[in-house]
Design a protein that fits this description.
The protein contains three helices and six strands; from the N terminus they run H-E-E-E-H-E-E-E-H. It is of the alpha+beta class. Strands 1, 2, 3, 4, 5 and 6 form a six-stranded mixed beta sheet that branches. Strand 2 and strand 3 form a beta hairpin. The N and C termini lie far apart (38 Å).
């Protein structure tokens, strides 16, 4: 059986973050992971690790045919500078945040390959994971629609809105 749409969305976010590389013109190379267990993020304390954590979801609208969801994700990037670093840690955090925002907000990525109706950015959060580990969380909501009784498939309206948006974006 195929994965539910929400799982496909989480996998797509991992893929997009993993495309943030210096070879692709970004400021650094990031490596996304999804934790295998809750609250074991300390296992990932390496520079440029990005933990993609699925948060709560809420129903936006529902009918007898479909449910539109707002699924929250926290994209948490860890930054560990060496003792010889000369730039302020905020400079690195700003560059990591901006690279993630640039990648996710690119027109071709906003609909996550047709899985979603869009990505909405929320507030970012700066955090300290360990005494030597700073980080930035880019918080997003992904809006998507599935069949009322089938979280494994997109509804016709969400599929058609993603293709009509793509064609209107490419014509502008």
């Amino acid at each position: 059986m195929a994965d539910p749409i929400v799982e496909q969305i989480a996998d797509k976010l991992v893929d997009l973050v993993n495309e943030i590389t210096t070879a692709n013109g970004f400021n650094q190379t990031l490596a996304a992971v999804r934790p295998k267990r809750i609250h074991l993020e300390g296992d990932f304390n390496v520079d440029n690790a990005v933990i993609i954590e699925q948060e709560s979801a809420e129903v936006v609208t529902y009918t007898q045919r479909e449910i539109t969801w707002r699924q929250a994700f926290a994209i948490q990037a860890l930054v560990i500078d060496s003792d010889t670093a000369t730039d302020p840690i905020d400079t690195r955090l700003n560059k990591v945040r901006s690279d993630i925002e640039k990648k996710l907000s690119a027109t071709q990525n906003l609909r996550l390959g047709g899985l979603a109706e869009g990505i909405q950015f929320r507030a970012t959060d700066k955090f300290i994971a360990d005494p030597q580990v700073a980080g930035i969380a880019v918080n997003i909501d992904v809006i998507y629609t599935t069949g009322y009784n089938d979280p494994y498939s997109l509804t016709w309206s969400s599929s058609s809105s993603s293709s009509s948006s793509s064609s209107s974006s490419s014509s502008s």
